[in-house]
Design brief:
Number of domains: 1
Number of helices: 0
Helix content: under 10%
Strand content: over 45%
Structural class: mainly beta
Number of strands: 16
Distance between the termini: 27 Å
Shape: flat
Order of helices and strands: EEEEEEEEEEEEEEEE
Radius of gyration: 19 Å
């Protein structure tokens, strides 16, 4: 997702909130599998966002704001995982089993200059985000950046037996000058965030 220039004195402003709250999920034997293979390449003003998921109630997002006419950049981000339950005891399930498998092979053989966001999750109640607010202004003596980030996970419950969560990743990044954010999760209730806020003057 590409953001737009916002209210910080004409500079790029990125605001976003991800919330999972008050959800009860009851499952028996469960298997989730995600396989990721990607070669990525971007120019200075290009962005790539990739999301893969298998399971239930996973939230993923990539948000990028780019400006080449302002010396100010700001991000305000919040992730919340509140009051969710996976196989609560009242479900009456006999020894529920869970197997989550995630494999990733990500490379950038041709170079990366712009932002890249990658999210992959196998399981349930996983919250993932990549965010970047970048301002570049030539001929300026001053550059200002500001970031406000919050993550909250509270009052959550998970019950499962014979749980297996696997993550296998091969990540090769050659000739990279841009921002790259990668989130990989296997299981229940993982909260992940990568964020960069940069203002450059030259």
């Amino acid at each position: 997702m590409i953001g737009s220039e916002g209210a910080l004195a004409g500079g790029p402003l990125l605001t976003d909130e991800q919330v999972l709250a008050g959800i009860d999920l009851e499952l028996g034997d469960t298997e989730n599998a995600v396989g990721v293979a990607a070669n990525v390449s971007t120019g200075p003003s290009e962005t790539i966002d990739l999301n893969w998921t298998d399971g239930d109630f996973n939230i993923q997002d990539n948000a990028f704001v780019l400006s080449f006419t302002s010396e100010k950049a700001q991000t305000l981000l919040q992730q919340s995982l509140l009051g969710v339950s996976f196989n609560p005891e009242s479900a009456g399930l006999a020894n529920p089993r869970m197997h989550n498998v995630l494999t990733a092979d990500i490379s950038a053989p041709d170079g990366v200059e712009g932002p890249v966001g990658v999210n992959a999750a196998a399981g349930a109640f996983n919250v993932q985000k990549n965010a970047a607010a970048i301002a570049v202004i030539p001929g300026s003596l001053l550059a200002l950046s500001s970031a406000g980030i919050g993550e909250e996970a509270a009052s959550n419950f998970s019950l499962h037996h014979d749980a297996i969560n696997d993550v296998t990743a091969i990540i090769t990044m050659d000739n990279v000058s841009g921002n790259v954010g990668i989130n990989l999760a296997s299981g229940v209730g993982n909260v992940q965030l990568n964020s960069v806020t940069t203002a450059l003057s030259f």
